[in-house]
Specification:
Layout (H helix, E strand, L loop, with lengths): L10 H19 L1 E4 L3 E7 L4 E2 L9 E4 L5 E6 L3 E11 L5 E12 L4 H7 L4 H18 L4 H5 L3 H16 L4 E12 L2 H51 L2 H16 L5 E4 L8 E4 L2
Antiparallel strand pairs: 1-4, 2-3, 2-5, 6-7, 7-8, 9-10
Helix pairs in contact: 3-5
Protein backbone atom coordinates (compact mmCIF):
# COMPACT_ATOMS: atom_id res chain seq x y z
CA UNK A 1 0.00 0.00 0.00
CA UNK A 2 1.44 3.31 -1.01
CA UNK A 3 2.16 5.77 1.80
CA UNK A 4 0.31 9.09 1.79
CA UNK A 5 2.64 12.07 1.44
CA UNK A 6 2.87 14.01 4.74
CA UNK A 7 2.16 17.71 4.83
CA UNK A 8 5.33 19.55 5.76
CA UNK A 9 5.35 23.13 7.01
CA UNK A 10 8.02 25.48 5.82
CA UNK A 11 10.92 25.57 8.24
CA UNK A 12 10.68 29.35 8.66
CA UNK A 13 7.00 29.24 9.71
CA UNK A 14 7.81 28.11 13.25
CA UNK A 15 10.01 31.13 13.69
CA UNK A 16 7.29 33.42 12.42
CA UNK A 17 4.74 31.91 14.83
CA UNK A 18 7.17 32.26 17.74
CA UNK A 19 7.89 35.86 16.86
CA UNK A 20 4.13 36.53 16.56
CA UNK A 21 3.49 35.11 20.04
CA UNK A 22 6.29 37.19 21.49
CA UNK A 23 4.86 40.24 19.70
CA UNK A 24 1.39 39.65 21.15
CA UNK A 25 2.82 39.30 24.66
CA UNK A 26 4.94 42.39 24.13
CA UNK A 27 1.94 44.37 22.86
CA UNK A 28 -0.29 43.28 25.76
CA UNK A 29 2.37 44.43 28.19
CA UNK A 30 2.73 47.74 26.39
CA UNK A 31 -0.86 48.95 26.78
CA UNK A 32 -3.14 49.91 29.65
CA UNK A 33 -6.87 50.61 29.52
CA UNK A 34 -8.27 52.67 32.40
CA UNK A 35 -12.02 52.50 32.87
CA UNK A 36 -14.33 55.34 33.89
CA UNK A 37 -13.99 56.63 37.44
CA UNK A 38 -10.42 55.30 37.72
CA UNK A 39 -6.91 56.68 37.37
CA UNK A 40 -3.57 54.96 36.87
CA UNK A 41 -0.27 55.35 38.70
CA UNK A 42 2.74 54.55 36.54
CA UNK A 43 5.70 52.56 37.89
CA UNK A 44 8.94 52.84 35.88
CA UNK A 45 11.09 49.78 36.41
CA UNK A 46 14.27 51.33 34.99
CA UNK A 47 13.49 54.82 36.17
CA UNK A 48 12.58 56.50 39.46
CA UNK A 49 9.95 53.89 40.34
CA UNK A 50 6.51 55.28 41.20
CA UNK A 51 5.90 58.48 39.25
CA UNK A 52 4.85 61.24 41.67
CA UNK A 53 5.80 64.39 39.75
CA UNK A 54 3.33 63.86 36.90
CA UNK A 55 -0.48 63.62 36.84
CA UNK A 56 -1.99 60.15 37.14
CA UNK A 57 -3.00 58.45 33.90
CA UNK A 58 -6.50 59.48 32.89
CA UNK A 59 -9.32 57.27 31.65
CA UNK A 60 -8.85 55.56 28.31
CA UNK A 61 -6.19 53.66 26.36
CA UNK A 62 -2.47 54.21 27.05
CA UNK A 63 0.72 52.82 25.54
CA UNK A 64 3.50 52.16 28.03
CA UNK A 65 6.84 50.41 27.97
CA UNK A 66 6.40 46.66 28.56
CA UNK A 67 8.76 46.69 31.52
CA UNK A 68 6.71 49.36 33.31
CA UNK A 69 3.53 48.82 35.34
CA UNK A 70 0.27 50.72 35.96
CA UNK A 71 -1.69 50.46 39.23
CA UNK A 72 -5.36 51.38 38.95
CA UNK A 73 -7.21 53.39 41.63
CA UNK A 74 -10.92 54.10 42.00
CA UNK A 75 -11.16 57.88 42.42
CA UNK A 76 -14.96 58.12 42.78
CA UNK A 77 -16.54 59.07 46.11
CA UNK A 78 -16.90 55.92 48.20
CA UNK A 79 -18.82 55.09 51.37
CA UNK A 80 -17.15 53.42 54.33
CA UNK A 81 -19.68 52.07 56.86
CA UNK A 82 -18.36 51.37 60.37
CA UNK A 83 -20.80 49.51 62.60
CA UNK A 84 -20.83 49.03 66.41
CA UNK A 85 -17.68 51.07 66.97
CA UNK A 86 -17.05 51.07 70.74
CA UNK A 87 -16.18 54.37 72.42
CA UNK A 88 -16.44 55.77 75.96
CA UNK A 89 -18.49 58.77 77.10
CA UNK A 90 -17.18 61.46 79.44
CA UNK A 91 -18.28 59.44 82.50
CA UNK A 92 -16.73 56.20 81.24
CA UNK A 93 -19.83 54.44 79.92
CA UNK A 94 -19.46 52.31 76.81
CA UNK A 95 -21.22 53.71 73.74
CA UNK A 96 -21.56 52.12 70.30
CA UNK A 97 -21.58 54.25 67.17
CA UNK A 98 -22.57 53.48 63.58
CA UNK A 99 -20.78 55.84 61.19
CA UNK A 100 -20.75 56.39 57.45
CA UNK A 101 -17.72 58.17 56.02
CA UNK A 102 -17.70 59.50 52.46
CA UNK A 103 -14.17 59.64 51.05
CA UNK A 104 -12.04 59.51 47.92
CA UNK A 105 -8.33 59.74 47.07
CA UNK A 106 -6.95 63.08 45.94
CA UNK A 107 -6.41 62.63 42.19
CA UNK A 108 -3.61 65.19 42.02
CA UNK A 109 -1.75 63.33 44.80
CA UNK A 110 -2.45 59.78 43.65
CA UNK A 111 1.23 58.95 43.03
CA UNK A 112 2.19 60.07 46.53
CA UNK A 113 -0.71 58.08 47.99
CA UNK A 114 0.45 54.95 46.18
CA UNK A 115 4.04 55.50 47.23
CA UNK A 116 3.44 56.30 50.91
CA UNK A 117 0.25 54.38 51.79
CA UNK A 118 -0.48 51.88 49.04
CA UNK A 119 -3.73 50.49 47.73
CA UNK A 120 -4.91 49.55 51.21
CA UNK A 121 -4.88 53.22 52.26
CA UNK A 122 -8.38 52.83 53.74
CA UNK A 123 -7.05 50.43 56.37
CA UNK A 124 -3.81 52.34 56.81
CA UNK A 125 -5.17 55.91 57.01
CA UNK A 126 -8.93 56.35 57.10
CA UNK A 127 -10.12 53.67 59.54
CA UNK A 128 -7.50 54.47 62.23
CA UNK A 129 -8.27 58.19 61.99
CA UNK A 130 -12.01 57.53 62.27
CA UNK A 131 -11.54 55.48 65.43
CA UNK A 132 -9.20 58.05 66.93
CA UNK A 133 -11.50 61.00 66.19
CA UNK A 134 -14.62 59.20 67.42
CA UNK A 135 -13.00 58.26 70.74
CA UNK A 136 -11.64 61.76 71.23
CA UNK A 137 -14.87 63.61 70.41
CA UNK A 138 -17.36 61.29 72.10
CA UNK A 139 -15.24 61.30 75.26
CA UNK A 140 -16.17 64.96 75.77
CA UNK A 141 -19.91 64.33 76.10
CA UNK A 142 -22.31 62.59 78.46
CA UNK A 143 -24.59 59.77 77.29
CA UNK A 144 -27.57 62.12 77.53
CA UNK A 145 -25.93 64.63 75.19
CA UNK A 146 -25.02 61.86 72.75
CA UNK A 147 -28.57 60.55 72.78
CA UNK A 148 -30.39 63.81 72.22
CA UNK A 149 -29.28 67.36 71.64
CA UNK A 150 -25.60 67.07 70.72
CA UNK A 151 -25.66 64.44 67.98
CA UNK A 152 -25.38 66.93 65.12
CA UNK A 153 -22.57 68.79 66.87
CA UNK A 154 -20.69 65.53 67.52
CA UNK A 155 -21.11 64.49 63.89
CA UNK A 156 -19.65 67.81 62.70
CA UNK A 157 -16.75 67.64 65.16
CA UNK A 158 -15.83 64.10 64.09
CA UNK A 159 -15.92 65.20 60.45
CA UNK A 160 -13.68 68.21 61.08
CA UNK A 161 -11.22 66.12 63.12
CA UNK A 162 -10.89 63.37 60.49
CA UNK A 163 -10.59 65.88 57.65
CA UNK A 164 -7.88 67.81 59.50
CA UNK A 165 -5.80 64.70 60.14
CA UNK A 166 -6.11 63.22 56.65
CA UNK A 167 -5.60 66.35 54.56
CA UNK A 168 -1.81 65.74 54.51
CA UNK A 169 -2.20 62.01 53.82
CA UNK A 170 -3.43 62.36 50.22
CA UNK A 171 -7.08 61.41 50.85
CA UNK A 172 -10.19 63.59 50.93
CA UNK A 173 -13.00 63.22 53.50
CA UNK A 174 -16.26 64.61 52.12
CA UNK A 175 -18.68 63.94 54.97
CA UNK A 176 -19.31 61.94 58.14
CA UNK A 177 -22.77 60.72 59.15
CA UNK A 178 -23.63 59.42 62.63
CA UNK A 179 -26.24 56.81 61.73
CA UNK A 180 -26.93 55.46 65.20
CA UNK A 181 -25.90 55.84 68.85
CA UNK A 182 -26.44 52.78 71.05
CA UNK A 183 -26.42 53.26 74.82
CA UNK A 184 -26.60 50.62 77.56
CA UNK A 185 -30.32 49.73 78.05
CA UNK A 186 -30.47 50.98 81.66
CA UNK A 187 -28.95 54.34 80.70
CA UNK A 188 -31.23 54.68 77.70
CA UNK A 189 -34.35 53.99 79.81
CA UNK A 190 -33.26 56.50 82.45
CA UNK A 191 -32.63 59.19 79.83
CA UNK A 192 -36.00 58.59 78.19
CA UNK A 193 -37.79 58.86 81.55
CA UNK A 194 -35.98 62.09 82.33
CA UNK A 195 -36.79 63.54 78.90
CA UNK A 196 -40.44 62.59 79.35
CA UNK A 197 -40.58 64.28 82.75
CA UNK A 198 -38.95 67.40 81.31
CA UNK A 199 -41.49 67.46 78.51
CA UNK A 200 -44.37 67.12 80.95
CA UNK A 201 -42.93 69.93 83.08
CA UNK A 202 -42.63 72.19 80.04
CA UNK A 203 -46.24 71.45 79.11
CA UNK A 204 -47.34 72.28 82.67
CA UNK A 205 -45.38 75.54 82.58
CA UNK A 206 -46.99 76.40 79.26
CA UNK A 207 -50.51 75.78 80.60
CA UNK A 208 -49.72 77.78 83.73
CA UNK A 209 -48.42 80.75 81.78
CA UNK A 210 -51.44 80.56 79.49
CA UNK A 211 -53.84 80.59 82.49
CA UNK A 212 -52.01 83.55 84.01
CA UNK A 213 -52.25 85.50 80.76
CA UNK A 214 -55.97 84.71 80.44
CA UNK A 215 -56.62 85.83 84.03
CA UNK A 216 -54.67 89.02 83.43
CA UNK A 217 -56.69 89.65 80.27
CA UNK A 218 -59.98 89.21 82.12
CA UNK A 219 -58.80 91.48 84.95
CA UNK A 220 -57.84 94.20 82.48
CA UNK A 221 -61.19 93.91 80.68
CA UNK A 222 -63.11 94.04 83.98
CA UNK A 223 -61.10 97.02 85.14
CA UNK A 224 -61.80 98.76 81.85
CA UNK A 225 -65.53 98.19 82.18
CA UNK A 226 -65.52 99.38 85.78
CA UNK A 227 -63.62 102.53 84.83
CA UNK A 228 -66.04 103.19 81.96
CA UNK A 229 -69.07 102.77 84.24
CA UNK A 230 -67.54 105.03 86.87
CA UNK A 231 -66.81 107.76 84.32
CA UNK A 232 -70.31 107.42 82.87
CA UNK A 233 -71.95 107.55 86.29
CA UNK A 234 -70.01 110.64 87.23
CA UNK A 235 -71.07 112.42 84.05
CA UNK A 236 -74.83 111.64 84.30
CA UNK A 237 -76.72 114.34 86.22
CA UNK A 238 -80.48 114.58 86.78
CA UNK A 239 -80.76 117.38 84.23
CA UNK A 240 -78.96 115.32 81.56
CA UNK A 241 -81.21 112.35 82.24
CA UNK A 242 -84.35 114.49 81.94
CA UNK A 243 -83.11 116.02 78.69
CA UNK A 244 -82.39 112.56 77.27
CA UNK A 245 -85.82 111.37 78.39
CA UNK A 246 -87.55 114.31 76.72
CA UNK A 247 -85.56 113.75 73.54
CA UNK A 248 -86.57 110.11 73.44
CA UNK A 249 -90.23 111.00 74.14
CA UNK A 250 -90.33 113.46 71.29
CA UNK A 251 -88.97 110.87 68.87
CA UNK A 252 -91.56 108.32 69.99
CA UNK A 253 -94.37 110.85 69.66
CA UNK A 254 -93.49 111.36 66.01
CA UNK A 255 -94.16 107.72 65.16
CA UNK A 256 -97.51 106.87 63.40
CA UNK A 257 -98.69 104.58 66.20
CA UNK A 258 -101.52 106.00 68.34
CA UNK A 259 -100.35 107.03 71.76
CA UNK A 260 -101.10 109.42 74.64
CA UNK A 261 -98.35 111.60 76.02
CA UNK A 262 -98.77 112.71 79.65
CA UNK A 263 -96.48 115.47 80.80
CA UNK A 264 -95.48 115.58 84.45
CA UNK A 265 -94.84 111.94 85.14
CA UNK A 266 -92.49 110.52 87.75
CA UNK A 267 -89.47 112.74 88.32
CA UNK A 268 -91.01 115.24 85.91
CA UNK A 269 -90.52 112.92 82.96
CA UNK A 270 -93.29 112.66 80.34
CA UNK A 271 -95.20 109.35 80.02
CA UNK A 272 -96.27 107.79 76.73
CA UNK A 273 -99.35 105.58 76.75
CA UNK A 274 -100.11 103.54 73.67
CA UNK A 275 -103.19 101.51 72.70
CA UNK A 276 -101.89 98.61 74.80
Amino acid sequence: MAQQPQLQLPKGLFGIIFIGIIGIIFLSKSTATIKGGNRGVLYKTFGEGIVTDQPALDEGFHIIAPWNKVDIYNVRQQNLFMEDMEVLSSNGLEIKLDLSVLYQPRVEELGLLHKTKGKNYVDVVIIPEIRSAARSIVGRYTPEQLYSSKRDAIQQEIFEEIRRKTVTQHVQINDVLVRDVTLPPTIKDAIERKLKQEQEFLEYEFRLQKAKKEAEKQRIEAQGKADANRILSASLTDKILRDKGIEATLKLSESPNSKVVIVGGKDGMPLILGNN
